[in-house]
TrEMBL record:
<dbReference type="InterPro" id="IPR008927">
    <property type="entry name" value="6-PGluconate_DH-like_C_sf"/>
</dbReference>
<dbReference type="InterPro" id="IPR013328">
    <property type="entry name" value="6PGD_dom2"/>
</dbReference>
<feature type="domain" description="Phosphogluconate dehydrogenase NAD-binding putative C-terminal">
    <location>
        <begin position="214"/>
        <end position="267"/>
    </location>
</feature>
<dbReference type="Pfam" id="PF09130">
    <property type="entry name" value="DUF1932"/>
</dbReference>
<dbReference type="InterPro" id="IPR028939">
    <property type="entry name" value="P5C_Rdtase_cat_N"/>
</dbReference>
<feature type="domain" description="Pyrroline-5-carboxylate reductase catalytic N-terminal">
    <location>
        <begin position="12"/>
        <end position="88"/>
    </location>
</feature>
<dbReference type="InterPro" id="IPR015814">
    <property type="entry name" value="Pgluconate_DH_NAD-bd_C"/>
</dbReference>
<protein>
    <submittedName>
        <fullName>6-phosphogluconate dehydrogenase</fullName>
    </submittedName>
</protein>
<dbReference type="InterPro" id="IPR036291">
    <property type="entry name" value="NAD(P)-bd_dom_sf"/>
</dbReference>
<dbReference type="Pfam" id="PF03807">
    <property type="entry name" value="F420_oxidored"/>
</dbReference>
Length: 267
């Protein structure tokens, strides 16, 4: 068996277990990884989702001293508070020196400048390494003899632990998520996500305006016909995006603000 620096039995923590977090948890568990989370103060839906996915509950103090990596998958407004809570836990419960540094992977929909701000926070503790990341696509889910998968671009000077990178990159066991380290610069992965999301969420926002205005004018049916005639299949995708948007709208507000910050600062 390898030493603490290579032991793949160390858990991977996911904060928190929403739909995306649960999907990634199921994928990792299917690949033989123990997945943990902190359910302190979480609601019944989150607890049920974690239990259904096979995720174990541990206090944050135990997570920071035992996990190999923490994947932060929270709404944009919670990205910084989540990072600060991890650093506070590390300050109160220092990581044993016999262990490899904890890898903290921010996979949230935040601007490059916000990602760089998080990276600065983590320079205060040498026992943790920060990785900028993003998720493009829906939650992983079983599909036939494989999985339907998102992309997970990563950037910055640090990478994932080798065993986790191998699993997410598909090495040794068939394809997994499309995980790639795209740049040594913090903010590149977050910026890619922002540019992609500006198109998908912007298109949905325009579709909401177009459909609601057409409905008020009494021409919604003709609009649908025109879309289908000129761009077959697009209308159905638009309607799915519009009807699927309301449960996620609370996250999209801040995400669109992060997109605006990205365009202002980087464009």
């Amino acid at each position: 068996m390898g030493n603490d620096f290579t032991d793949p039995r160390r858990p991977v923590a996911i904060l928190s277990i929403g739909d995306m977090g649960a999907g990634i948890a199921r994928l990792l568990i299917a690949k033989g990884i123990r997945v943990v989370t902190d359910l302190t103060g979480r609601g019944p839906d989150t607890i049920s989702r974690a239990q259904s996915a096979g995720v174990e509950s541990l206090p944050l103090a135990e997570i920071v001293t035992s996990a190999s990596a923490i994947l932060s998958i929270v709404p944009p407004t919670s990205a910084r508070p989540t990072a600060e809570s991890v650093l506070s836990a590390l300050a109160a419960h220092p990581r044993p020196q016999s262990l490899e540094p904890l890898t903290y992977v921010d996979l949230n929909a935040i601007s490059p400048s916000a990602a760089r701000g998080l990276a600065v926070l983590f320079t205060t503790d040498s026992s943790v390494r920060f990785v900028d990341g993003a998720i493009i696509g829906g939650p992983p889910s079983p599909s036939g003899d494989g999985w339907s998968l998102p992309e997970i671009p990563l950037s910055g000077p640090h990478t994932l632990p080798e065993f986790l990178s191998t699993i997410l990159g598909g090495g040794g066991g068939g394809s997994a998520v499309d995980q790639q380290h795209i740049s040594p610069e913090i903010g590149a992965a977050s910026g890619l996500k922002m540019c992609f999301a500006s198109l998908t969420k912007g298109y949905t926002a325009i579709a909401v305006q177009a459909f609601s205005t057409a409905h008020r004018m009494g021409v919604l049916g003709r609009l649908r016909e025109s879309i289908e005639r000129t761009t077959p299949g697009v209308g159905a995708r638009l309607e799915r995006s519009v009807t699927g948007m309301p449960p996620k709208a609370y996250r999209w507000v801040r995400e669109m603000e992060e997109i605006g910050e990205t365009f202002r600062d980087e464009g």
